[in-house]
Structure formats: C-alpha cells, structure tokens
Amino acid sequence: MVEAPELxxxxxxxxxxxxxxxxxPDYRGQVxxxxxxxxxxxxxRLGVWDREASVFRRxxxxxxxxxxxxxxxxxxxxxxRFAGVAECSPCYWMDEAFHPGAxxxxxxxxxxxxxxxLGGVLRAEG
Length: 126
Fold this sequence. Notes:
The chain contains three helices and eight strands, in the order E-E-E-H-E-E-E-H-H-E-E. The longest helix is centred in the N-terminal third of the chain and has 11 residues, at 36-46. By secondary structure, the protein is an alpha+beta fold. The protein has a single domain (6-121), classed as M1 Pyruvate Kinase, Domain 3, CATH 2.40.33.
C-alpha cells in the first residue's frame, strides 16, 4: 500500500489504481476505511511500534468516526458519497502482518467496506 495525497474514486468501481478497481459489479469492498484510533490502540495494546497502518490493507484511514455505525448507511466525505456495506472482518493474516493477537483484537473493529455512490477526488487532510 502506498500513502497518497489524493485518490480518484469512480462510482460503482472504487479507487483508480487499486487492485479491486472494477473488480465485479456491485462489489461491496470498492473502498475500505480503517479508524486511526483503532490502529493507535492496537499499537499500544500489543506494544507494536514498527508497523504502519498500511499493513491492514485498508484504503482510507479515518479519525473521529465510528465506522461500524455506518454499516447500512449512506454517508459523505469531501463531497463524495458512499454506502457502508459491512465490517472488514480481520483474518489470520493480521497476526502475521502486524503481530500475534491482532486478529482477535480487531474483532468488530476491522474497518468498513463501502461502495462508491458518487465519485470524485478525495484529498488527505492534515
């Protein structure tokens, strides 16, 4: 995963350049979100300081939003529209990529899978 200052998103297809761009019609993981707070808490809990949030293979890092509350909801970020579809369930790979115990610690906090309803350019903040 590569950190980018902006992403181009296309309705119904996802992020231009992403491995799942245009993967299949109505794909529920066109874009994935992950909470910065969950990442920070996981680092603290497991004592891991040498792994970036990118190891979780989520597309967009968020702050200050309960991602699970967006499941089944439409929402907007910088004028782009999304439909929250499901949790990004953690898997065994999290223990290998981040640290043993990560899969269990991320249960019900693995991020959000969403569809792109209205595309455009999403820019990094901060």
